[in-house]
Amino acid sequence: MLSISVEEFLIWKKKQLSKGGEQQAFALLLDCMGGISASDLNLVNINLEGNIQLKKNLAFLESIWNDHLLKSCPIQYLCGITFWRDLKLKVTNKVLIPRPETELIVDIVFNIFRKKSEKFFFAELGTGSGAISIALALAYPFSDGVATDIDQDALEIAIKNYINSSKKSNLKFYCGNWWSPLESFKGKLDLAIANPPYIPKDTYEKLPKEVKNFEPKVALLGGEDGLRHIREIIQKAPLFLKEKGWIILENHFDQGEKVKQLLIKNKFTSIEIVKDLSGIGRFTIGRYK
Question: What domains can be seen in the chain, in order of their start residue?
Answer without folding.
Answer: 2-71 (no CATH), 86-288 (3.40.50.150)
